[in-house]
# Entry
Amino acid sequence: MSELAKDTPRPHWSFLSQNAMQLFYRLLAAFLICAVLSILSDSFLNLGNILNVLRQASLTFFIASGLTLVVLTAGLDLSVGANVALSACLAGMVIHQTGSPTLGILTGLLAGGAVGLMNGVMVTAMRIPSFIATYGMLWVLNGVTYWYMAGETIHGFPAGFRLIGSGYFLGLPIPVYLLLVFLAIGSLFAHRTVWGQEIYAIGANPVAARLSGIPVSRRLLLVYTVSGTMAGLASIIFLSRLNSAEADIGESLTLPAIAAVLIGGTSLFGGVGTIFGTFVGSLILTLVLNGMNLLSINANWQPLVTGIIVIIAVWLDMKTRRPAS
Amino acid sequence: MSDSAEITAAPPAPLLELRGISKQFPGVKALDDVSFAVYPGEVHMLLGENGAGKSSLMKILCGAYSADAGEVYYKGEKVDVSSTAEARKLGIAVIFQEFSLVPFLDIAQNIFLGREPKGRWPGIIDRRRILRDAKRVLDSIGFEIDPSVVVDTLGVAQQQMVEIAKAISQDARILVMDEPTAALSDREADLLFALIGRLKADGVAIVYISHRMAEVFAIGDRITVLRDGRRIDQLRPADVTPDHLVRMMVGRNVDMSYPRHFAERPGEVVLQVKGLSAATGISDIDIEVRRGEIVGLCGLVGSGRTEVARAIFGADPVSEGEIIFDGKPIAGEPDVAARRGIALIPESRKSEGLALLRSVGDNLVVAALNKLFPRRLYDPSDAQRTADGLIRQLRIATPSARQAVGLLSGGNQQKVVIGKWLAAGAKLFIFDEPTRGIDVGAKSEIFALIDRLVAEGAAALMISSEQIEICHVCDRAYVMRDGRIAGHLTRSELTEENIVRLGMHDE
# Structure
């Protein structure tokens, strides 16, 4: 730990030095939760359960990682859950009609990305605050999905397609590999590309970013489109795992994704946060819910516990973050 | 210090006296045994470079900080100013540079915010009474305006008047003003000085922080000079010269004349603006800037100087006209201008120039990301090297490139803003009030930097409200009036009188 905190003359890894402490605390919290659960419940440290937690966390992470980019620009995307539902239903329909999982996957990704792009257009060209634009989009998407599905359920997909969500490779669920891939891509994008740097700069001060020659509108379009595309990706994994699509599958996804972003240490004011933090946030959230299931605590308590964790995590961030002046 | 006849009006006891005040922050002694007294009916100028301790002293006066050592006396009695409420009770009010008005409330509501007169029903404000009371306060400071006007629609000078009215309505006897003319035009400043004169006559004591030498001599009754947290001297304007004051402030000799290597023969035209108009209120602007030149853009605040700068940089849309840069027309958003080699150093450094919470290093490379990483792969150690190089080259005082830029002094922050455009390799630098809120020593450093830039082949367009700076630094200057170019002054015609004459509304 002291190695990271010290001012070394080596490469400065600005994201690490700024966020190392916060990430460390989060990982510590995750380990503590694991330790407590393994004492309280015999079934926690069982391989099946661990893999289940990871798969569960990966679903939250896919949505939350795209959302993290939006939040880094001081925006919010409230339409991700509704986007997952619409994309899943469209993808499911295409697979049923054409019998081609590839076409279905493409449909899901494109639908998700298109919704994100529309969010981006509302935020940039129409200058609607992202909170309001994506809140409106949530209702529009729900409306379209309910009308399109008309109460139907699409059920039963080819076995090959179902492997994406429920298959294993070398003993690990496929979504866990996807999780690792997107965690790596997301972190590299955020910290090792010019786009990532520009996104942090926009979140820290959009006016100064624009006057420093950063094409703010184009970057915001990119960020909202990526967020939508990640929702599209999540929709494919959901579809494959549930083996069915219904209009209401997105309703319980948005708020946990936001919770994962916040627990992961990304500031709603923009400019501060990491994709890795969001991964740990997804993990903490899933661990706690998993633990409550294992301890047979009534599921009605879950929202309350989630809320308390979010509040404590954000409060601790505010306490430990260096003051501005 | 000899007590001359003119201050016999001042009673023997000061209104407020600080004795032996010290204040320690981690790593710095902000104030070291400072004593300071204000008498009723005087304007006490507080001078010092940024970081000299003026702000800390001001914050102790208004109860925002508490001193580690020392005592405060009010009318000879020892008092405790450990909270802003205590300070207000003693009649101490501070007019900060950033106003504390609520923008969407009207003037009357702002003046009586939090102490609205009670109406007949509990919780209901007597609107008629509040307007009447506000009018009376505004009249008493000679500010003629309808108190039901929403503050948001007022200019800076008028908002400042509202702040003063608010202080007066709270029976302020000691008014602390932090660079009150920084955002005012000359004429607005004159109105403020007239008001200060009236307040003095009423026995109000005024503590006035300024970076402008002319004001110190125009309205100051006494001067206290601070340097490095210590009181260097307390004297009267009559006993001192500006040069002497500057030496006391900086503790060394600073050349106030900003020597320049004027271009014998300027290079080719870099920027040509033809018939430029924009919805922001500028019309028919013709400007030409050549390589190796510093061209001034002057005029009153609000005459359209900043708008011209923003239009050239693409920050505001252009409605008519043409901008030719480096021989080719340019149009579009700031990213186009930045890529072509235009730099804008905006007027409000903190809100438009920097991301205050980000590091010095991040701020230094933000405009150069495309140039440093053409393949769009960001390399932190490359960025670090570039930042370290600029920190050395510009002598930016910071413990490291990782320090949050918001923690630096004004002059060093400005160096960071200029530095980011050096890294980007800009060919035309547009400076909008580059020395605002910067202390004397840092000012001459900034000018030396601009001089070096143009000597090395860049060009500069410089907006300044300090005519003396324009006269000393610029090769020539355009003067604006009411959104148009009112005239052009060559090097030999460049005098303060000529700038003022061209810039005045009623010539």
Q: What stands out?
A: Residues 1-10 of chain B have pLDDT under 50 and may be disordered.
